[in-house]
Amino acid sequence: MSSSAIAGPRPTQVRVYSLLLVLAGILMALLGWSASAYYVPAMCLGLLAILLWSGRGGALFKWVLIVNQVAGLVLILVLWLGDRIGLGHAKLDISGVALLVNLLCGGPLAAILGGLMLPGLRGGKGLFNWFNARPA
């Protein structure tokens, strides 16, 4: 479905989130000059912006944000509670994998924006309707 097939203009919510995703991607790319690991989240944020702007790939968009949120939560919980629950040396392995998955799915800026966008991806909400629009 092309963007011209979607009935009506883009909602303000789509414009704002697309712009925020692009700006976050640019910021991550600038950070990539210092630490090249940030180029991957920059590319993922760019992909998310393209998916949102075009109204395509709603399931991929949603699952990238969900995986990002889960990986970030696992990372925080393991670093915070790893010693208390007896993870020992596995704490570093688990947190390392969670960090890599989080970066692969857009990094910390995608986690912040994802927390704002995920409620709108439920059935009947604005972003859900955008991704599931029918041709006019």
Distance between the termini: 11 Å
- In quaternary terms, these chains amount to single chain
The share of residues in helices is 55-70%
Number of helices: 6
| Total number of domains | 1
Count of β-strands: 0
Q: Taking Cα atoms only, what radius of gyration do you get, to the nearest Å?
A: 17 Å
Beta-strand fraction estimate:
under 5%
Let me know the largest β-sheet: none
Q: Characterize the overall form.
A: globular
Rounded mean pLDDT score = 86
Structure explained in plain terms:
- The protein has one domain.
- It has helices spanning about 10-30, 40-55, 60-80, 90-105, 105-115, 125-130.
- Helix 1 (about 10-30) packs antiparallel against helix 2, helix 1 (about 10-30) packs antiparallel against helix 5 (about 105-115) and helix 3 (about 60-80) runs antiparallel to helix 4 (about 90-105).
- The chain has six helices and no strands.
- The model is unreliable at about 1-5 (pLDDT under 50).
Secondary structure layout plus pairing:
Layout: H1 12-31, H2 39-54, H3 58-81, H4 90-104, H5 107-117, H6 126-131
Helix pairs in contact: 1-2, 1-5, 3-4, 3-5
For the structure shown, list the relevant keywords.
136 residues, mainly alpha, 68% helix
